[in-house]
Specification:
By secondary structure, the chain is mainly beta. It has a single domain, classed as Jelly Rolls. A hairpin with a 2-residue loop joins strand 14 and strand 15. The chain is globular and about 45 Å long. Pfam families: SPRY (PF00622).
Length: 228
């Protein structure tokens, strides 16, 4: 699908309302369909996209990555706050489009449900949850809070747990991060991070495990909705 500059206004008005945080919306197709509709490169330009997890740069001592590099499981016992199993995608989110989005399926919330999804930059410390350090944002499953840099989290949305599907995206038209749960928009927040941003996920308690999603259908495999 080829988009034009006029599409930005449409996306800004229909996909995400920047003035409303924690939007109540029926789970299902509308929001995700809009995000997918505008996920094609602007002007037909092509970019390399994330396709798998970066097993070279990650907190390997606390997680195991599946052979296909698409799923993660926590393998430690979380004795310390820094015992986080965190991993980025192999490439940053593409920028030459209006919307970028990815999601995970929580196969097992583990002992504490401390799973997180978000974005980090290339300097991010790979022993911390996304949102616990500068230049990172993360939506956390155990408390439903949004974390964005050092400090405490802020009330943002519902918690998420086993069998939930959670998504994170960037609306370049409105310069916002947005997050979803089970197909419904949880909320959006201004994107004050610059530079390349990597899709990032974290597990932080015993037996936590994430699988990927594909076209909103459960598969045993982090994924990206296909470009429309």
């Amino acid at each position: 699908m080829t988009t034009t500059n006029t599409t930005a206004a449409t996306t800004n008005n229909t996909a995400i309302n920047s003035s409303s945080k924690n939007v109540n919306q029926d789970p299902g197709s509308y929001f995700i369909d809009v995000a997918r509709q505008y996920s094609s490169p602007v002007g037909g330009e092509t970019e390399l996209e994330p396709t798998e997890l970066n097993t070279v740069k990650g907190s390997g001592g606390f997680l195991v990555v599946s052979i296909d590099k698409l799923s993660v499981k926590y393998t430690s016992v979380n004795l310390h706050g820094h015992d986080v199993g965190v991993i980025q995608a192999d490439r940053p989110a593409p920028e030459k489009r209006l919307v970028y989005y990815f999601e995970i399926h929580v196969k097992n919330a583990g002992a504490r449900g401390q799973i997180a999804i978000g974005f980090t930059n290339h300097t991010f410390k790979m022993r911390r949850q996304p949102g616990w350090e500068a230049n990172s944002y993360g939506y956390h499953g155990d408390d439903g809070n949004l974390y964005r840099g050092p400090g405490t989290g802020e009330a943002f949305g519902p918690t998420f747990t086993t069998n939930d599907t959670v998504g994170a995206g960037i609306n370049y038209a409105s310069q916002e991060f947005f997050f979803t749960k089970n197909g419904a928009l949880v909320g959006a927040v201004y994107k004050d991070m610059k530079g390349l941003l990597f899709p990032t996920v974290a597990v932080h308690s015993q037996n936590e495990e994430q699988e990927t999603m594909k076209q909103q259908m459960k598969v045993d495999k982090i994924s990206l909705p296909p470009i429309v």
